[in-house]
Amino acid sequence: MHHDLFFIFILKTADKKHGFAHNKVISFSQELDRLLNLLIERKTKKKRFSL
């Protein structure tokens, strides 16, 4: 999944610019992952119903 690369990029940039706590970025990425999973689940459910 390409979004993993995006999170790695965020982690690296955040480190260079601010050096702030990684857990903020990690929790952000986990939240996005959760939302993506919900969207994927919805799509598969819709497909099942349309069949």
UniProtKB/TrEMBL annotation:
GO molecular function, one term: protein dimerization activity
Stored InterPro entries: HLH_DNA-bd_sf (IPR036638), Spo0E-like (IPR018540), Spo0E-like_phosphatase (IPR053028), Spo0E-like_sf (IPR037208)
Protein name from the UniProt record: Aspartyl-phosphate phosphatase Spo0E family protein
Gene Ontology BP, a term: regulation of sporulation
Top-level taxon: Bacteria
